[in-house]
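Hey, quick one: can you model this chain's 3D structure?
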Amino acid sequence: MKETDIRKALQDGSSYLTRAGAETPYLDACLLLAETLSLEKEQLFARLSDPLADTPHDQYQALLTQRAAGVPVSYLRKRKEFYGLEFYVDQRVLVPRPDTELIVETVLEVTDTLPHFDRIHDCCTGSGCIAVTLAKLHPGIEVSASDISEPALEVFAINSDRLLSRQLETYASNLLEAVPGTYHIIVSNPPYLLSSEVDTMQASGWPEPRLALDGGDDGLDLVRKLAVQSKSRLHQRGYLMLEVADPQMETTVAILEACGYGDIEVRHDLAGRRRVCIGRNGARS
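Sure thing. Here's the predicted structure for all 285 residues.
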């Protein structure tokens, strides 16, 4: 095989991923080559003229092939940064999105203002990015989590151990059905894609688990159930915080109003899209 250097490998990899339709081909190529060589991205840029041996080149090519087939970079690297923390991820869980950091910020605003609101439950936790981040930033808060997927809870346990050096209380539960106790805040990033959207994604080979994506015909099946269940599980004037998609926000607000939540607020993400809906138990609208 003709010897190549890191710069040429990146150029070739980026071109290959561009042809495959990747949204960020050069960044993806950089991350995958850095992963192959056990380097940080910045270290990789400092070694652009270094030769790339056959074995790492072949490993890099194998990763590029998987990325071109639609496997997320985070799955290939087995990690994803969220709120400044590095979470383990694989195909058992949804890859954490930056948009979800907004719901963490919203919880932190409440706990900073109302420090006695110290019992928080994260429903549909997946990788644990919300629950583990909250427990990391506020060690004095009692945080628990639940998910219907036991494989997802296995990933949660990895992240709890790596980032907290302890295990948070977790429950294998269909929403709150098997979760005991009452809480000051119930937070959730539930599956909220339309079933038809998930059908299309999976037909194209999308690798994330359907259970973490599919929210029913209008994407809000779990939101409706959780809004009802949370009423009896929240302290008086406790908060329900939900992440949903912008086009679903009016319906989500109406669901919370119909269930008797008050002081309803809508928060926008960095792109200006409505992303988080907040309601208080027992509060007047």
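One thing worth noting: The domain at 80-281 is CATH 3.40.50.150 (Rossmann fold).
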